[in-house]
Amino acid sequence: MDENTRYQVLRNDEEQYSLWPADIEVPAGWQPVGKEGTEAECSAYVDEVWTDMRPRSLRERMENAEA
Question: Which residues form the MbtH-like domain (predicted)?
Answer without folding.
Answer: 2-48
